[in-house]
Amino acid sequence: MSCRKLLQYWKRIYFLVSIACLMFVLFLFSCFSLVYAADPVKGQDTGVVEDKQREEKNVDEATSNRSVLKEKTSDEYGDVTEEQSAGGDGPRIADPLESWNRGIYHFNDKVYFWALKPAAQGYKYVFPEGIRGLVSNFYKNIKAPIRIVNNFLQGKPGYAGIELAKLIINSTVGVGGLRDCATECFNIKGRDTDFGQTLGKYGMGHGFYLVLPFLGPSSARDSVGLGVDWSLKPTTYLGGSEWINPENVGLYVHEAVNTTSFHIGDYETLKSAAIDPYVAMRDAYTQYRKKLLEK
C-alpha cells in the first residue's frame, strides 16, 4: 500500500516538474518574442513632406517606396488597396498582444515542423487511412457531450437530441464510436458546436486575438470556451480528480497527430502563399469562427 502511494506521489511530482520545465521554455520564448516580433517597418512614415516645393521637386525615399509598393500591389495582386490587404470587409479582431502572439506563433511553427509533422508522417506511414478514420470517429464520438450541451444552450434542443441519438447509436452499433453508423446507416446528421460559439450566439465578441502554446489561434472568448469544453469531455477525468494529467494529455496529443495525418501540407500551403503568415492565420481563424456562428 505504501509502495503504491509512493508511486502515485512520484508520478505527480514528475508531471509537475514536466509542467514547470514547459512553462520555463514558454517564458524564454515570450522574452524572445519581444525581440523577434518587433515591427519590421519602423520609420516608414518618417519622411513627411514639409514644403510644397519639396513635393513639386523630388519625392523623398519613404514616399517613393510607398508609390513603388502601390504599383506592385496593383499589378501583381489585382488593384488591392491598403485597406483590403489589411483585412478589407472581412471580420476583424483586436490584437493588442501581437508581440506575444507572434512569439507563440513562431514557437508553434517550430513544434509543427520539428515534432507534430514528423510524428504525423510516420503515423500515416504505419496506419492506413481506414484505421485513422476509425480513430477520428472515436474521438468525435467522445466529444458528443460538448455538442449536446452547447446545442441546448444555443436554443437548439432538436440538434441536442440528434447528437444524443448519434452518441447512443455510435457507442453501441458503432462499436464504441469507431464507426459513425448514425450517419452512414441512418443518415442522421448533427451540428458541430462549442462553448465559444455559445458565447458568440449571446452577443459576446472575441475580445482580443490570442495564440495559445501548442493549441494555436484562439481569442479571449474562445479560450474560455476551450476550458468549458475540456470539462465536458469524459477523457478529462481519466486520470482521477486532476483536471490535466498525463492520461488526458496523451489522448489529446494522439488525437492531434491522427488529425494532422489527414492534413499534411495544408499549413505549408497557407504559409507559402501568404505575405505575412501570422496575419493570414489570424484572418483565416476569424473568418472560420464567423462562418460557424452564422450556421
3D architecture notes:
By secondary structure, this protein is mainly α. Among the domains are: 98-127 and 205-295, no CATH class; 129-193, no CATH class. Helices cover 66% and strands 3% of the residues. The chain has a two-stranded antiparallel sheet with strand order 1-2. A hairpin with a 3-residue loop joins β1 and β2. Mean pLDDT is 79; it is low at 13-88.
What's a concise summary of this model?
The N and C termini lie far apart (54 Å).
Which helices and strands, and how do they pair?
Elements: H1 2-36, H2 52-56, H3 61-76, H4 82-85, H5 98-126, H6 129-142, H7 144-153, H8 157-172, H9 181-184, H10 195-201, E1 209-212, E2 216-219, H11 220-232, H12 246-260, H13 266-273, H14 277-294
Antiparallel strand pairs: 1-2
Tally the helices.
14
Number of distinct beta strands: 2
End-to-end gap: 54 Å
- Spatial order of strands in the largest sheet: 1-2
Q: Quick check: average pLDDT?
A: 79
Strand content: under 5%
Uncertain regions spanning at least 5 consecutive residues: 13-88
Q: For the report, how would you describe the main beta sheet? A: 2 strands, antiparallel
Structural shape: globular
* Coarse structural class: mainly alpha
H/E element order: HHHHHHHHHHEEHHHH
CA gyration radius, whole angstroms: 24 Å
Helix content: 55-70%
